[in-house]
Amino acid sequence: MTSTVLLTGGTGTLGRLVAPLLRAAGADVRVLSRQTHESADGVEYVTGDLATGAGTAAAVAGADVIVHCAGSAKGDDVKTRHLVDAATAAGRPHLVSISVVGADRTPVVSGLDRAMFGYVAAKRAAERIVAESGLPWTTLRATQFHELTLTTARAMARLPVLPAPAGFRIQPVAAAEVAGRLAELALAGPAGLAAEMGGPRTYEMRDVLRGYLEATGRRRPVVPVRLPGRAAAAFRAGANLAPEHAVGRQTWEDFLAGQAALV
Prior knowledge:
The protein has 263 residues and is α/β, with parallel strands linked by helices. It has one domain (4-257): 3-Layer(aba) Sandwich (Rossmann fold). Helix content is 37%, strand content 18%. It contains nine helices and eleven strands. It has helices at residues 15-24, 56-60, 76-90, 111-131, 146-156, 175-186, 205-215, 230-236, 252-257, and strands spanning 4-8, 28-33, 43-47, 65-68, 94-100, 137-142, 162-165, 169-170, 192-193, 203-204, 222-225. The strands form three sheets. A seven-stranded parallel sheet has the order 3-2-1-4-5-6-9, with helices on both faces. α4 links the parallel β5 and β6 (137-142). The termini are far apart.
């Protein structure tokens, strides 16, 4: 039996990689987007806005599975609530969502914490909404994508001196590998909280930045900066890492080597 899958965030870093995998597996794919798109490559696009809930009910109608890749550092809980409410009214589709490693281990308790780690708190709030929705659900926590790490490094390299959060380590993973796992979970039964997914190696943040500078032929000093707050302390303790689940294959060095344009 062919499944109908609604994909949110289908034009983003992760979602655009998930869509063709679902199509290749034989699913009918519907993408919810704020922008109007012409249907292409067997993917149907519907217009709606999770932030306001507009168009969400029509988007979820008839969906057997919802893969929720849309998210941001602000309002992620509101978007997820609108999606859950529409899905509950439409029936009991399997809701599959992406979250971040450390969402449950990073205390975001102050305004300062929220300013620097708001995306973690947003993901944790969205996790709770999914788990308490009454819908069949699966949530996959992943470490930071290579692609987003590159965006950070590129922005910081514009500075004359690169501040590296002291004691921070990251375990970057390829978005394509996470997309493959997410598609597998979407086409399987509800799993609740799935095993975490991390990249193959852990790096000091300073070494990530130095790797980018070397790959782009730049010379910049990288200076350690100790960040205050409980969330930063949790990151220094490795809350954002999943060393027991280092299942990714592509390293940061391999990713950089494969980029046609890094600057």
